[in-house]
């Protein structure tokens, strides 16, 4: 556990340093384009209106980029608390609730979201909030890279382990990024670059692991493996 907390502390330091530096660029772009839009609004006319809309679109893009940075910072900030809390968690109930909560976002992308889970599953000793964050992270990644497709969450129990996989038939991960997906700050531009790094730290703090298989253009499968049962685990 001490090693996990050390890694989390390092992630916090690196992320906050990155965020404080990277925020300067989108804030500058936003300021410039608001001034540009204001100038064109004063000029008036059809061409000016088109330039105003163009500036507003760019401002929106930068706002969303800032939002992803803040989301990453908040996620890392909450990790230490999540890894320090353990409780006996009913995986089946958590998954069903999580899937239903995420279905509206999946629908917006035109995706079909399904869950294949046995009627009975062993409990795990892990914070329910940590488990929700793990699954939500994988669902968000799948949904971001899939449109009008299928996302399936499947659960398998084998002996002393519980395997939760999230599979999609979306765009897949580019081959140059795939080997580095768990590294902090690595992104294809659709996220903060910290989501999968956070997910892996949370899983490992519970004594498990997470792997990702992807074929570019055909889809991705991410699988979390957790120790089954309610015995307290210490990952050192």
Give keywords.
236 residues; Helix Hairpins; five-stranded mixed sheet; two-stranded antiparallel ribbon; elongated; disordered C terminus
Q: What does the model show?
A:
There is one protein chain. This protein is of the alpha+beta class and 236 residues long. The protein folds into two domains: 2-83, Signal transduction histidine kinase, dimerisation/phosphotransfer (DHp) domain (Helix Hairpins); 86-227, Histidine kinase-like ATPase, C-terminal domain (Heat Shock Protein 90), CATH 3.30.565. Helix content is 53%, strand content 18%. The chain contains six helices and seven strands. The strands form two sheets. Strands 2-4-5-7-6 form a five-stranded mixed sheet, covered by helices on one side. The chain has a two-stranded antiparallel sheet with strand order 1-3. The N and C termini lie close together (4 Å). Residues 232-236 have low confidence and may be disordered.
- The helix/strand class is alpha+beta
- Mean pLDDT equals 79
* C-alpha termini separation: 4 Å
Q: How many domain units? A: 2
Shape call:
elongated
**What is the gyration radius calculated from CA atoms?**
20 Å
Poorly predicted tracts of residues: 232-236
Strand content: 15-25%
How many individual helices?
A: 6
Helix content percent band: 40-55%
Named at the architecture level, the CATH assignment of the largest domain is 2-Layer Sandwich
